[in-house]
Amino acid sequence: MNDGSRGSPMDFTMDQILTIVGRLDDAAGFDTPRERFRRFLREQMTSIDSARTFIEQCRAQSGEQSHRALQDAIVLAGRLLGFDPSFGSYQHDPGVMPQHGSWQSRHRQHVTLILCSDQTIDIDLDTLSRAIAGSEGPPSRIGLLVITPFYSGKHRLEQGVHSGKYPMLRLISVRGLLRLAEMVADRTLTHDDVLQILDPSATLDARLDLLDRVMVAGQAEPDAEVAGPVAVKPEHHERRCWVNAMRVDPFTPTERIVRSLIGARQILGINPSPGLEDRVRAGDAICVFIAGRGIVAHGQINAILADGSRMLRDAKRFTHVLRLTNVTVYDAPVIPTLELTRKLDLALLDETEAVTVPISPREFDLITAHALSEAG
After folding, report:
1. DSSP class per residue in 225-268
2. Residue 216: inside a domain, yes or no?
3. Which of 88, 94, 123, 287 could form a disulfide with 100 if both were Cys (CB 3.0 to 4.6 A apart)?
4. Residues of the domain holding 270
5. Which tens digits make up the pLDDT trace of 245-275?
6. 158 with 125: CB under 8 angstroms?
7. In angstroms, rounded to a whole number, what is the distance separating the alpha carbons of residues 17 and 253?
């Protein structure tokens, strides 16, 4: 695939990859669809960017095959956290708690993985907790339930785990797992830190020490390694609000841009309208409009990076690369008013890919209030 005539594996969607490898099931054999797919993941899912691409595509879809592909990608993501992963079965006998794979940290910790999606049977926490307690392995054994947006029993699991009856069980969203892997990739966290986060016996003092180190690293990282001078502290000025309008290629997975780049990494490239380049400041509010879809997210500008090339591919296409905070990604796009839609469509004429235009605080508040009411 390196002769220039064929695309990289990363250019294919997950649906296309599954079409190539075949239907995933538990059939044994070196050249079965399951083993071909798992070899593909081992070879290609070697970084946080590739993991995010695969996982976000699977997470955005329901159905048996997406669940099985996501299951294997979640298991293999353990490598990015420093674990030795082992794949599990796709199907399980009736009455048996599903164990979709595991992560092993030498003789220190064993993590049993359960992916909760629309394909997952109801999880009995008592049965699961007993199974993990009775399993062989290191003294530290936990069950990690990875929750997708399609799992209807999330609230029940949260109540059960938070009750304190199941100290060996942990909950994390798919997005939270990606964030954890990103922090390890950025060297904000180490493998030992991940073990401590998951360890039910970790003391509060140990966790406070970890929080202190993460906060110090987060404060130092933008200036020292990535961006050069950064406007971190907003100046006192009147509240400004912006819409970043984007035209996305129809072959680009929009969900990946919104969920991973804006939602998880909280990075956004913008091109303010001519004459407004120096008016965008830290502390301003901004929302993101994608042509043909609507407004998909909002947040606050935390910093304007002097050099965003190490944070965003093709950063030269943008006059500003922003680090965001307080980001909210909408479950369903918000359709702006007819007047604002016309304004944004005009701004995206002449094949313009992205442009940032000002809006009034009232318009911004109406958009965000509508999105939050829909989410509630």
Report:
1. IIISSB--SPPS----EEEEEE---TTS-HHHIIIIIIIIS-EE
2. no
3. 88
4. 241-375
5. 988 766 566 776 788 888 888 888 888 877 7
6. no
7. 15
